[in-house]
């Protein structure tokens, strides 16, 4: 299977982002937490990145699943929704169309002239100075397109949500906040057609896409690595002594995460994590997370057995019927669904103006459904039960997976080589561009050097003439001396004008 690749992740959180929640009132925090969950507390999640690297290595992009030895699992809508205490069913679909600087300025109230030269993103510190600090409005009044402190108070909460989402849910390698998230924030705070929106499908889609792109050679995990880290830790490293009857709603699962994890025997690196996960048995897995609401999960739509997901990086889909054990049900053979046609990765992470599959996604989210034929039995939810038919099916799938592994490894290597070739091509273009700039700079330097030499020569001539002017002629009158000095002064001014 090979060794897992190093995957860059959002692990070191900017100081301003960590400090920001402490500067807001409980009311302001609540306005954001009802839309993004307790996202300000993500700063307390500690990760070294190894588990995420291992999960990326074990990811099957065709089925949107992690292959864990003889088991398969994935992160589900219900698991993210429960972790963040946010609703999904009954909400409108967010289509994260890319926003530009104009829309960003309208959302924040920052004047466009203040952020000239910025195209796609902005530093979190810039927004922190103007919106997090209580005197931000007074200190930077000239940067805003509005003059009302009341408007600033409202925008302050919005911008806080934007920065938290841009850091923890949709991170960038440079740790800046992307303008393209503005449309998502508008939908979350204002709703769509008087209907609330949910961020959960967008988060899940970006995690799936990040797993796929990083496995194909991408260097940065462009999804919420911290949510994926928590998901893995709670499923595979949870302390058994934790009470089973924790509350289902209103409980902050983020800040209490570390209390539930057994950190005494964690794998030391990504390779050890891969070995640990592939050799794990069903009895070692906590199949249903403490916060997962199993009563009425999303298992399919009216039109299909899969659920389409729209993210900031592209479109993905997954088949919830493959992961019934994570929803407190007995796992049977899932319907065969080819998800490949429903996977689209946006070029450079920018959604095109023509929305692909918009009608299909809209209709799917209007007809989300569970399956009454698959009963939920609370007393059996942690046993991870399966049918004999499923065991036979997963066994054959595992054998087939092992047979296909060499071919898949070749495909992965091809994808990595293609990605490297693109990088080399881009570097070559950059080198050529820098060569041209260097040649221009050299010519400018030569021109300036010649100018300096000419200026030195002319200055020398002026100095010689100044020395001669100091010596008076024999029997020279006072008026003659003044005329001579005046003529010399005019000469100096003309020379200086020529040299400028």
3D structure, described in words:
- Pfam families: DUF7745.
- This is DUF7745 domain-containing protein.
- Residues 24-394 form the DUF7745 domain.
- The protein has helices at residues 15-19, 26-36, 50-57, 77-84, 101-108, 124-132, 136-139, 149-169, 182-190, 200-215, 225-236, 270-278, 358-366, 388-470, 478-499; strands at residues 59-60, 65-68, 71-73, 121-122, 177-178, 300-301, 307-310, 314-318, 344-345, 368-369.
- The strands form 4 sheets. A 3-stranded antiparallel beta sheet has the order 1-2-3. A 3-stranded antiparallel beta sheet has the order 7-8-9.
- It has 2 domains: 15-292, no CATH class; 392-500.
- The chain is mainly alpha-helical and 500 residues long.
- It contains 15 helices and 10 strands.
- α2 (26-36) packs across α8 (149-169), α6 packs antiparallel against α8 (149-169) and α14 (388-470) packs antiparallel against α15 (478-499).
- The model has no long low-confidence stretch (mean pLDDT 85).
């Amino acid at each position: 299977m090979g060794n897992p690749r190093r995957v860059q992740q959002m692990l070191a959180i900017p100081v301003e982002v960590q400090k920001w929640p402490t500067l807001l009132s409980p009311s302001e925090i609540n306005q954001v937490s009802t839309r993004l969950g307790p996202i300000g507390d993500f700063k307390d999640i500690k990760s070294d990145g190894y588990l995420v690297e291992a999960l990326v290595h074990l990811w099957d992009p065709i089925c949107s699943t992690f292959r864990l030895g003889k088991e398969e699992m994935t992160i589900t809508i219900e698991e993210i929704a429960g972790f963040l205490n946010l609703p999904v069913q009954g909400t409108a679909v967010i289509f994260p169309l890319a926003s530009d600087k104009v829309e960003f300025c309208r959302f924040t109230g920052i004047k466009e002239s203040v952020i000239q030269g910025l195209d796609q993103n902005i530093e979190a510190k810039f927004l922190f100075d103007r919106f997090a600090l209580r005197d931000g409005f007074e200190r930077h009044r000239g940067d805003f397109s509005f003059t009302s402190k009341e408007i600033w108070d409202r925008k302050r909460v919005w911008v806080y949500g934007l920065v938290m989402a841009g850091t923890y849910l949709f991170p960038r390698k440079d740790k800046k906040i992307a303008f393209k998230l503005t449309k998502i924030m508008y939908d979350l705070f204002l709703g769509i057609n008087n209907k609330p929106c949910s961020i959960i499908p967008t988060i899940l889609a970006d995690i799936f896409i990040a797993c796929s792109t990083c496995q194909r050679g991408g260097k940065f995990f462009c999804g919420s690595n911290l949510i994926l880290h928590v998901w893995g830790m709670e499923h595979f490293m949870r302390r058994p002594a934790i009470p089973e009857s924790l509350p289902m709603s209103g409980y902050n699962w983020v800040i209490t995460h570390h209390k539930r994890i057994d950190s005494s025997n964690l794998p030391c690196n990504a390779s050890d994590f891969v070995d640990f996960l592939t050799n794990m048995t069903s009895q070692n897995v906590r199949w249903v997370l403490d916060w997962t609401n199993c009563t009425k999960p999303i298992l399919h739509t009216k039109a299909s057995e899969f659920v389409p997901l729209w993210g900031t990086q592209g479109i993905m889909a997954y088949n919830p019927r493959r992961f019934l054990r994570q929803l407190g049900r007995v796992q049977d053979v899932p319907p065969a669904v080819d998800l490949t046609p429903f996977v689209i990765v946006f070029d450079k992470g920018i959604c095109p103006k023509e929305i692909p599959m918009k009608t299909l996604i809209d209709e799917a989210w209007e007809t989300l459904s569970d399956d009454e034929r698959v009963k939920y039995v609370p007393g059996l939810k942690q046993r991870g039960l399966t049918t004999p038919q499923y065991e036979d099916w997963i066994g054959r799938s595992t054998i087939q997976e092992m047979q296909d592994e060499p071919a898949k490894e070749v495909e992965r290597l091809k994808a990595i080589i293609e990605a490297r070739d693109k990088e080399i091509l881009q570097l070559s273009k950059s080198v050529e561009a820098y060569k041209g700039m260097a040649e221009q700079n050299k010519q400018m330097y030569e021109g300036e050097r010649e100018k300096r030499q000419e200026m030195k020569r002319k200055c020398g001539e002026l100095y010689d003439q100044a020395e001669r002017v100091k010596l008076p002629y024999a029997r020279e009158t006072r008026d003659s001396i003044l005329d001579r000095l005046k003529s010399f002064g005019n000469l100096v001014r003309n020379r200086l004008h020529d040299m400028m």
